[in-house]
Amino acid sequence: MIELHNRAAIGAFVSLGVALAMLVVSAILGELTRAAAALVFLLIFGWLSGLGLSQLYKIIAFLSWLLQFGRRLGGEPIPRVQDLVNERRAAPMFIAYYIAVAVGATATLFGVSLLIRAATVLMFAATVCLSREYWRAWRGYYPQRGMAEAMRRAAPGRLVADPGDDRAREGRA
User: Fold this and answer.
1) N or C, fewer C-beta in 10 Å, the chain?
2) In whole angstroms, how far apart are CA 132 and each of 29, 45, 103, 110, 125?
3) Every domain of the chain and the residues it spans
């Protein structure tokens, strides 16, 4: 299964492809100046920013994993890098971002300023929500669940208390 950062990068490359196709078509039709703003919008927000957001999703998780668990590698069970993120939670944020980019580029092409503003607000909201996920990955918000799963994989059949369980913290597990 393809990880979320790679699936989200597909949206960035689709934006690049659409921008290139739009460039060729608008140049052939002689409408390059009319399409210029939409092209720039797609390239900056769809391709560059979208690719940056998608790759940061994995880079931050990897750096956090390296910082938190790198020294313990081989000595004890540790979570995978993938356990530091919650893809189900972040996927809708990437979808919202790329939908907003598509709406914003289309609105820019046709000069609908209210729709451009709405798309920009949605892009900003999706970026803020993704930033929260980056923060969670960096601060180790999700690894408690991942650590319990890693310990279960390392010692199958052995009862391992879930670190997120209150009873385990109080010694009643």
Assistant:
1) N
2) 43, 19, 24, 33, 11
3) 4-169
